[in-house]
Amino acid sequence: MKNKRGSHVGVIISFVAFIVFLMFLYFIFEPAIKQNQNKQSLVDNLKINLIEYVSAEMTLATITSGGSGPCLKLDRAALELDGSSCVVKDENGDIINSQITGNDLEIDWGGGESFFKVYCSDESFTNYLSSCASSVDDSTPGLIKTEKHIFETKIIQAINSDYDVLKTALSFPESNNFGFNFTYNNGSSIGTPEKDMATSIYVEDVPIIYVDQDANITSGMLSLRVW
Fold first, then answer.
1. What is the three-class DSSP state of 186?
2. pTM exceeds 0.90, yes or no
């Protein structure tokens, strides 16, 4: 009986010692755990707000023309081609010279049966302007859709923005700071300058699909940092 009682006491003491050890570890690591949870929450909110901030709508319309050229004139309102800037591409994805004239989009082409993709947005695309001495309106619209995309131009604008203004726009807490880098699909990278950099930094890479200045839809990376 004595041996059994002593064995039980030893088990209880070992269990209590183990619980005390776990409590000791918890109190040691609790601040770091809470800090990481807080920074993860900051990154999550930054990711949502930043992606929304650098996104805009783009309308894609497919057009088939049977005119004789040299220019095709499209009624932008009729095709719901909203936006102050447009890029026109042929069936091979090559850019065709075009310009917006009033409510019309004029496309400089060589005549004959042709298929075009027209991309329009309020975000600025690279200008490929060409004046048309005369134009025809002989076209058949196909697919027309408007979707929201991340834009290279808006990312660059965000990077070049005043930090405090951007911080307010992204609803980022005043007591913390952030930064981010944008990596193009060719590997080159640009980013925000660091402000009051701390030693404890939380970093997360976010793969994105974005629209470049030639209306190409391609992949890149946003690297977010909070401290």
1. coil
2. no
d(CA 159, CA 153): 10
* Secondary structure (DSSP) of 11-69: HHHHHHHHHHHHHHHHHHHHHHHHHHHHHHHHHHHHHHHHHHHTEEEEEEEEEEE----
> Structure tokens of 77?
């309102």
Element spanning 226, H or E:
strand 217-226
What was the pLDDT predicted at 73?
A: 85
HEC secondary structure over 149-183? EEEHHHHHHHHCCCHHHHHHHCCCCCCCCEEEEEE
CA–CA dist 138, 186 (Å, integer): 40
7, two tokens: 């064995």
Averaged over 56-68, what is the pLDDT?
A: 87
